[in-house]
Design a protein that fits this description.
Blueprint: E1 9-11, E2 14-16, E3 20-25, H1 39-50, E4 55-58, E5 61-62, H2 82-95, E6 100-106, H3 114-117, E7 122-123, E8 137-138, H4 141-160, E9 165-170, H5 175-180, H6 195-198, H7 200-213, E10 219-224, H8 235-248, E11 252-256, H9 281-288, E12 295-297, H10 304-312, E13 318-321, H11 323-327, H12 331-337
Parallel strand pairs: 3-4, 3-13, 4-6, 5-6, 6-9, 7-8, 9-10, 10-11, 11-12, 12-13
Antiparallel strand pairs: 1-2
Helix pairs in contact: 1-2, 4-7
The structure holds flavin mononucleotide (FMN) and iron/sulfur cluster (SF4).
Length: 362
């Protein structure tokens, strides 16, 4: 009998070949000055596609230089990036056994440094970040509309480059995440206060993308359902926001959590017992109960039968992983053809390497 993990599912009108997602993974392989795609990235994405992953999501691509979060990060901030990005989308489609590729588009907000982003970092409010030691500058209303335009234009470039869709990055304390968090958004105008106001920027971005890319262009989000911070985003508010985004035309949601300031991000170290795999899945399962669109579960999932149980029991619709694909891009294919039981990834986090991600346990 076919496992539920190898049944297809739709994101909008797009059909995925299976239930596996490569969660967005910054690879530190782009050109450091301007974020152009480099050949090593084409190679990496070819391997991911050969591994039969249903949906591959790129590392976060910055929509404007003020939103650069990290060295050697992909950029989608101007039209000159389109040819390189098109080669990356083509690398997936050509080597593909049916994999699709989405671009994750992002702005770092306050989780960067003037050295990286070339200016005082931007945020909804001037709330000091003790981790990056940054006091960001509060965006004016006019600048918020500019940010919306950056995201909309970035999505247009992704579409032009041949990506199958776009994922908005609204997790981990970056700019959109910092808007929806009451800890980092202290605004008293239409863009702060209630969860409806705090998530307005995301609905405006969705509306803009719908206008320029069409009503059916695949558009999903990765969103925090907790910041792991006192005074941060709660599950109840995240659920309300998720409903409003579904109504605005979003087609799937990946649930994550954490921000730098909390000392607990989304990449938890250490191996866990099978029953603790999927550390964000309980949050995702709560949100799934109130949505119609597919929900993507995440966080330390390593074991095939765990992934199967999470989907078969209806807790989530898709299984997302990041580090296991750094360890072995062919993991899904090996699950299918060799009945591999578990990813050998140890969640040791030694793959974070500013000269390019790679598994240190091999
Ligand atoms: C090297 C590395 C880079 C990452 N880059 C991103 C990113 O660009 N965008 C994002 O949303 N999450 C990023 N993440 C987080 C992962 O997408 C994922 O949410 C997290 O690692 C938990 O999944 P896992 O336990 O399967 O690794 C990154 C994780 C790693 C290990
Ligand atoms: S270094 Fe290898 S084993 Fe360790 S977390 Fe990264 S991919 Fe997994």
């Amino acid at each position: 009998m076919t496992s539920c993990l190898f049944t297809s599912i739709n994101i909008g009108r797009l059909r995925l070949i299976n239930r596996f997602v490569r969660s967005a993974t910054h690879d530190y392989l782009a050109d450091d000055q301007q974020g152009f795609i480099r050949p090593a990235q084409l190679e990496l994405y070819r391997h991911l596609a050969e591994g039969e992953i249903g949906l591959i999501i790129t590392g976060h691509a910055y929509v404007h230089p003020s939103g650069k979060a990290s060295p050697r990060q992909i950029a989608v901030d101007d039209d000159r990036k389109i040819p390189g990005l098109a080669r990356l989308a083509e690398a997936v489609h050509q080597s593909s056994r049916g994999s699709l590729v989405f671009m994750q588009i992002s702005h770092a907000g306050r989780q960067t440094s003037p050295a990286l982003c070339g200016q005082q970092p931007l945020a909804p409010s001037a709330v000091y970040d003790p981790v990056s030691r940054v006091l960001p500058r509060e965006l004016t209303v006019e600048e918020i509309y500019q940010v919306i335009e950056w995201f909309v234009k970035a999505a247009g470039r992704a579409r032009q480059a041949g990506f199958d869709g776009v994922q908005l990055h609204a997790g981990h304390g970056y700019l959109l995440s910092s808007f929806i968090s009451p800890h980092t958004n202290r605004r008293l105008d239409d863009w702060g206060g209630s969860s409806e106001n705090r998530s307005r920027i995301i609905r405006e971005i969705i509306a803009g993308i719908r206008q320029t890319c069409g009503p059916e262009f695949p558009l999903i989000i990765k969103m925090n359902a907790t910041d792991h911070l006192p005074g941060g985003l709660t599950l109840e508010e995240a659920a309300n926001i998720a409903i409003s985004l579904e109504q605005a035309g979003l087609q799937a949601i990946e649930i994550s959590g954490g921000m730098n300031e909390a000392g607990l991000g989304s990449v938890w170290p250490g191996l866990r017992a099978e029953e603790e795999e999927g550390y964000f899945v309980p949050l995702a399962a709560s949100i799934k109960k109130i949505l119609k669109i597919p929900v993507i579960g995440l966080g330390g999932i390593r074991t095939y039968r765990v992934a199967e149980k999470l989907v078969a029991s209806g807790q989530v619709d898709l299984i997302s992983m990041s580090r296991p694909f750094i360890n072995h891009p062919g993991l899904v294919k090996d699950f299918r053809t060799r009945h591999l039981e578990k990813s050998p990834c140890l969640s040791c986090n030694k793959c974070f390497n500013p000269r390019g991600i790679s598994c240190r346990q091999k």
